[in-house]
């Protein structure tokens, strides 16, 4: 498995697929089924265009994990700067906006490799990395805690007109 920067529309297609599959698996029972099924795993050209625009805003912090055939199996999106991060991220802090791995690749160290590469992608001025995880996402919380993150705050995530409690985690880097 190789972790590298986002390079192409094919990478974006792979990101969307890994994202959709991971959401459907990781959040089953935590989010409504219709929300999960709405996550694309076979994106149209229009969907890819929308993601390209969103990811272009922060292309330096978007990383993909690819296998030997250059197929995207996971991705991470790290951000910094007040216009690119959520309100719980302060000065000299970055945000791990997303990290998802295709479920058939879980447990192989891909998420850890993406996290480590994401930390390396941050500017030297960043002292802490923060993230938000659904409060009931025990798998996610265990992943972050095992890698040194500590729960430092609470927040909420709004989706489809509903609000879900979250936990904010922080890693000193």
Automatic annotation (TrEMBL):
Signal peptide: none annotated. Residues 1-173 form the N-acetyltransferase domain. InterPro entries: Acyl_CoA_acyltransferase (IPR016181), GNAT_dom (IPR000182), MshD_Acetyltransferase (IPR050276). It holds the Pfam family Acetyltransf_1. GO terms for molecular function: acyltransferase activity, transferring groups other than amino-acyl groups. PANTHER family: L-AMINO ACID N-ACETYLTRANSFERASE, PUTATIVE-RELATED. This is GNAT family N-acetyltransferase.
